[in-house]
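hey so i finally got around to running the thing on that chain from the lab meeting. sorry it took forever, my laptop kept dying and i had to restart like 3 times. anyway pasting the input first so we r on the same page abt which one it is
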Amino acid sequence: MDNISSHSIKSNNSYFFDNNIWMFLFCPIGNTNAKKQQILSNFLSDLLSRNCSIIVNSLILSEFSNASLRLDFDIYKQEGNILSNFKKDYFKTERCKNTRAAISSAIKQIEKVSDKYNDQYNSIDLDSVLTYYNNFLDFNDCYFMHICEKNNWFFVTDDKDFDIFNSTQINIIKP
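ok and heres what got predicted. didnt touch it at all, straight out
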């Protein structure tokens, strides 16, 4: 496992950003840790200046959209709005409509700096994914690890769940 500050970037390497990284970089309502946001922003700029590939797939964009909406729903409730149901109540609000527009804009920004990856699910070794799954990770995280391992990509994440893995299993980079 590497730390971003000590990671040696080489041209033409490929990096897969976990959703939590995209949230720090592009979540329109995030702003939770300015220092980490700056570190990740500088890292992204360094990767792009060295012609590295930043990989994105539809599952990450789905996680980004859903996590951003859930975050705004929680903030909206904390502001004193009484909503009991995420989909039935919040989805009907003007606030949700505006948040969706901001998220759509952020997704377009993500696409500008990344390369789309067709994950070819039909060729995935599901047993390998499930091996990771049995290590107490959620399924998406296991899936991301598998495709990174399969393609020899660096996996950039701020998720503490990945601390159980050593660098011989997968190339993990943390801020």
